[in-house]
């Protein structure tokens, strides 16, 4: 077992080295959709099972043969990462689709973008109010407001990057980020809305300013911000079990002030129960439960049909894991435990499901990164891509069908919103010569 656990950590370190090497050589942006996805994969599909195996604590799951399940998990992890990277770097399907959505570089005045950011964040506040007052529309309004605050913060980060000490811009940042936190800290159990706000702002700032810095400058500038963001998310993680639909932003902030940040950080980095759930699946499927071949791919289509129109619409595995595993001490009919992409693959066919999902997500992440590559300096393309960063970070953990669809919704909604603005105010320009350290990433080999 010790060797198996060590090999999990070898894979995690290898991914980290790859990300840093390609980021420093500018072959793949450090802050790219691919790397965001891989960060989530490392936490939820590598560190989480390794931590569970090391402590022999499986969050209530009864795993008959942990050693065998661990070996399957390890093999699937290595296979998934290899094929994911192969798909991302060598297959051109995503590149073809990205080129179809590229209309050429454009720019807009910061005054226009300022008005856009303020309008978007106020609209997000309106959608959040609708979610509180009209329960039937809560799911739609929640996903919409998350996309909107992500877009508003991405636009604001873009503006701030060019005028980092301008008092008027700092007031704009305080207003937009403040309203966004009011929207995302009240009544949410999930961390994704909070992460979407911070990642959206960082995405806009990175792609207008920080990516042009030398590695040393980037490290000095980014480290304190990353640490602060990590502390905020850890504090929220520590108190989110106390969140209810009636908890407002002020109440959440009060709880976060007294949060056990150390415990929150431990929970955050350990991936919580994801690794245990996936290990249980690999231990019991197909011995005790039948495969449901590629259900997640099918559910990507099912998800769009409202349950009021399809009362017997199948539920994703995360809704049934607690009942199937006969977990004790929890409300099995309410709790949701997603096992992550490897867990879903293990319940949906095993080896061939891992292969298919690895190729799918390799192309899915490459599509968004390619849009950014083809449109350097174009806020009308770059910023909508950044609006789904929270979804991509959780994609390796959560319901992969739902997260994939919500990522698409966030991108399309933000793209259309900013695109229609660009029709009236955007203007074409030629790419400018830029210094060595602000050079756009080199095209990847196919």
UniProtKB/TrEMBL annotation:
Task: Note the superkingdom of the native organism.
Answer: Bacteria
What sections of the protein cross the membrane? Answer: 6-24, 36-52, 72-91, 112-130, 136-161, 168-189, 218-239, 341-361, 400-420
Question: Has the keyword Disulfide bond been applied to this entry?
Answer: no
Has UniProt tagged this entry with the keyword Transport? no
Q: Which UniProt keywords apply?
A: Membrane, Transmembrane, Transmembrane helix
Identification of the protein by name = Oligosaccharide repeat unit polymerase
What organism does the UniProt record list as the source? Lacipirellula limnantheis
